[in-house]
Specification:
mainly alpha, two-stranded antiparallel ribbon, 11% strand
Length: 168
């Protein structure tokens, strides 16, 4: 049971859903012979923590490139993209932590229920053993009583037989 839960948690932790809306903006600036284009697409994506971190790193690199070129519009767009990527990464980390906690709680709950069931089974077994012991003791007492009665009956029959024999 524990192995199944841990396997499920591993799968859950590797693929965490992080829905993110991104705005689509294209900024093209002509600075002499240089043209900078920053594209930010709107979509809903499924991100793992590694992918979210990679998006943060890429957004940071785009921001650094815009700052280096001195393009204010591209810099502003890159800052927004970095903020969005950081937000998605934070949400992904929170989802991973939440999923890990849920799995841990599930494992602990399963262990608790298993322990409770084992205790119940132990109590049921103990009760059954006590019932069997009581039945065996009663049967032994009944046998003892029946044996005493039979011995008394045999003795009475013997004594009657002797008296009959003496009377003749």
């Amino acid at each position: 049971m524990k192995k199944i839960l841990f396997a499920a948690s591993a799968v859950l932790l590797t693929v965490v859903v992080s829905c993110k809306k991104e705005n689509s903006t294209v900024v093209t600036t002509d600075g002499g012979t240089d043209t900078v284009a920053v594209v930010h697409t709107e979509e809903t994506t499924v991100l793992s923590e590694t992918e979210a971190k990679a998006k943060v790193d890429k957004a940071q690199a785009d921001l650094d490139a815009a700052i280096k070129k001195g393009d204010k519009a591209a810099e502003e767009t890159a800052r927004k993209a970095l903020a969005d990527a950081n937000s998605a990464w934070d949400k992904t980390k929170a989802a991973v932590n939440s999923a890990a906690q849920d799995v841990k709680d599930g494992v602990n709950n399963a262990v608790d229920k298993t322990n409770e069931a084992a205790k119940d089974a132990k109590a049921d077994l103990k009760t059954a053993a006590q019932d069997v012991k009581a039945d065996v003791n009663k049967a032994a007492q009944d046998t003892k009583d029946a044996t005493k009665k039979a011995a008394g009956d045999v003795k009475d029959a013997y004594n009657k037989t002797l008296e009959s024999a003496k009377a003749k």
